[in-house]
Amino acid sequence: MSLVYDLRELADLLKFPSTVALSRTMARMDACGFPRPLPGMGNRWSAAQVTDWIAANGASRPLPPAAAPTGPQLVIDNASQRLTLKYVRHHHG
């Protein structure tokens, strides 16, 4: 695991279709306590801080059994599903 994520890695981790889609929701995520980029590192985020934030903001709805992963990927997938529902689908237009 990397110690930092760049914007592309973060978009992939959170299952955003592009860095543009992630950038469009970043202000709303920041308002919910998403970690800020590391000082002096440009658009790079602490992997540990991102992982902690994902765990604290995990999905309350489980994935369907056929798609259910286990371990750390479960936390990331559940959080991704929750974030997509909260920040992307409900904030169009």
Structure notes:
The protein is globular, with a radius of gyration of 13 Å. It has helices spanning 7-13, 19-31, 47-56, 72-89, and strands spanning 4-6, 44-46. α1 packs across α2 (19-31). Helices cover 52% and strands 6% of the residues. It has a two-stranded antiparallel ribbon with strand order 1-2. It starts with a strand and ends with a helix. It contains four helices and two strands; from the N terminus they run βααβαα. The longest helix is centred in the last third of the chain and has 18 residues, at 72-89. The protein is mainly alpha-helical. Mean pLDDT is 75; it is low at 59-68.
Brief synopsis:
By secondary structure, the protein is mostly helical. It has helices at 7-13, 19-31, 47-56, 72-89; strands spanning 4-6, 44-46. Strands 1-2 form a two-stranded antiparallel sheet.
Overview features:
93 residues; globular; two-stranded antiparallel sheet; 2 strands; mainly alpha
Low-pLDDT segments: 59-68
Based on the structure, what is the oligomeric state of the protein chains?
single chain
First and last CA, distance? 36 Å
Q: Overall 3D geometry?
A: globular
Mean pLDDT, all residues: 75
Biggest sheet: strands side by side, in what order? 1-2
Question: Percent of residues in helical segments?
Answer: 40-55%
Radius of gyration: 13 Å
How many E-type strands? 2
Largest sheet: 2 strands, antiparallel
Classify the secondary structure makeup into a structural class. Answer: mainly alpha
Number of continuous helical runs: 4
Fraction in beta strands: 5-15%
Order of helices and strands: EHHEHH
